[in-house]
Amino acid sequence: MYTPSEKDQLRRIEHHEADVVVVGAGILGCAVAVALGNQDRSVILLERSLKEPDRIVGELLQPGGVQALEKLGLRDCLEEIDAIKVFGYDVIYYGEEVAIPYPEDGRGGEASDEMRGTKRKRPEGRSFHHGRFIQRLRQKAMAHPNVTVIEATATEMVTSGYTGQVLGVEANVQGKPDSFFGHLTIIADGYASKFRKEYRTDTPVAKSKFWGLELIDAPLPMPNHGHVILGDGAPVLLYQIGTHETRALVDIPENTTSASVANGGVKGHIRNVVIPNLPRAVRPCFEAAIEKDRLRSMPNSFLPPKTNITPGLAILGDALNMRHPLTGGGMTVAFNDVVLLSDLLDPAVVPSLASTGLVLKQLKRLHWQRKSLSSVINILAQALYSLFAANDTQLKALQQGCFEYFKLGGNCVDGPVGLLAGIIRNPFVLIYHFFSVAVYAIWIYVASGGILAAPFRATIGSSMVFYKACAVLFPYIFSELRV
């Protein structure tokens, strides 16, 4: 006699049928397969290639993401991959730096352990080689008795001609066509999703690219911290991903003159614009990496979320929602989405995923419940990038104001970095700090103009800076309010 689990496994292997078919064994795909498998759901996880991926993003997990991993029982996936502890950020503005550590109250407003008379260490993030982390997640999925992982390339949806319900996917397995069926199909095939365009008309918007290098034994100004370097041009990120390796990400907006072919292309931009703004101790490693390492790029895409409304289908992860990776929030959003989804689809609430109407109802709830975190991460990433890649007078004023605001310390650091870390999950806190930065920036802008310029700056100039702040923030707020 077979146990229920063995029967489901036989059904997955021989008949390619399960409760859930997941397309994409990346960050979200692996996590959701394990989470639903833990609920005794039968899961088929499809992945085009099970080789270790090699990417230049998805390498920093904020404390809010670490907490979500713990809830999913996947915390040990951060072990044995040479992951580096991250305690916060070091922001360097034209050579001047300010530390913004993760806040001591790591539970986002709950009573801290200090209040109870005990000492709690600050929350920690982790940075690592993306591929190593993915392989650990895949190992967890492969070892799960309720999950079958198959190397296959999904090609198209299997859809009911009568109801429009998604019944599964067609795929190529070792060059041969095959089909996989489930009550719920989850598309988690990443930023370049081949299925997204079938179910929504808008497309990701990318106005810049990150160009990545790997520095060897780089002496970072503040070890165990992410570094954001602001100067001439768009921001540069530095963070350690291994004992000897440091990731450097250079943001280059479209049509950047200094990166044109006539000026030496991307390498010319890095040599002429980026390196002079770097801390002196890092420059030799950067120059060596340019000569030895291959330059790779990733588009910095923005895609607001939309409600899943197709019966039998859920589009999640970067296929659903993307933001600029400046704040390193993508994986934190993904893992928290899995926590929410597994709660909403708990067998006590949804006994059978064949109850398509009930599943759709829960997916609509997911769209709104996730916003306490995802909207904060989405808006913050886009707004901060606008300030950090400032290309006009008003944005430059806001950029300087943001840096000076961090220098005030206290809540002026704990609030913003708590939002960035996925610890504080309140959009109103974001709005408060953003406009506090704007007001502080206006004060600095007026005060630094001298007596002759003060009247203009106090009236027209300050109004233009405030208007620019609104123009930066409100479009992203409105994008989060759409269904």
Automatic annotation (TrEMBL):
**Gene3D superfamilies in UniProt:** FAD/NAD(P)-binding domain
Q: Does the keyword Lipid biosynthesis apply?
A: yes
Using the UniProt annotation, give all residue ranges assigned to the region (Disordered).
104-125
Question: Hydrolase: present as a keyword of the record?
Answer: no
Which keywords annotate this record?
A: Endoplasmic reticulum, FAD, Flavoprotein, Lipid biosynthesis, Lipid metabolism, Membrane, Microsome, Oxidoreductase, Steroid biosynthesis, Steroid metabolism, Transmembrane, Transmembrane helix
InterPro entries for this protein:
FAD/NAD-bd_sf, Squalene_epoxidase, Squalene_monox
Name the residue ranges with Basic and acidic residues bias.
104-117
Which residue range or ranges hold the Squalene epoxidase domain?
Answer: 182-456
Query: What is the topology of this protein in the membrane according to its UniProt annotation?
Result: Multi-pass membrane protein
Q: Provide the primary localization.
A: endoplasmic reticulum
Explain the purpose of this protein. Catalyzes the stereospecific oxidation of squalene to (S)-2,3-epoxysqualene, and is considered to be a rate-limiting enzyme in steroid biosynthesis.
Annotated family:
Belongs to the squalene monooxygenase family.
Q: What is this protein called?
A: Squalene monooxygenase
What is the organism field in this record?
Answer: Cryoendolithus antarcticus
